[in-house]
Amino acid sequence: MREQPTGGVPILRLGDVLVTGLLNELDDKSALAFTDELTHRISAEGARGVLIDISRLEMVDSFVARMLMEMTSMARLLGARVIVAGLRPAVAITLVELGLELDGVETALNAEQGMAALGWHQQPPGGAHHDTTR
């Protein structure tokens, strides 16, 4: 199984959810390769959810906004739910000021909340212990 797409952005699988993130250095060619890899992985692995962490993005322009909308639309067509997590306040302000809307893109405050929305829950420290002697 490939964990490193040709676009240079890692895509990890956790059960039936794919987890990935975006960095500032994403150019047109890398973005296209990343989108191709992500859609291929959703289809090939039957992923029901995708978490895209953008907390490391310091700015979002119209290109990145369009890419997120397109990835979300493609994933939905393939049967996966996409949540974009970690949108910084300055990025949200910039998007609004530029009039860019992420129509159809679900968001979460951070990756943990995004994973919870996709059905994942954090285990308590030390893991859950069940008494099976009853």
Automatic annotation (TrEMBL):
PROSITE patterns recorded: STAS (PS50801)
SUPFAM superfamilies cross-referenced by the UniProt entry: SpoIIaa-like
Residues passing through the membrane, by range: none
Domain of life where this protein originates: Bacteria
Domain STAS stretches: 16-118
Name listed for the protein in its UniProt record: RsbT antagonist protein RsbS
Organism of origin: Streptomyces hundungensis
Name of the coding gene: rsbS_1
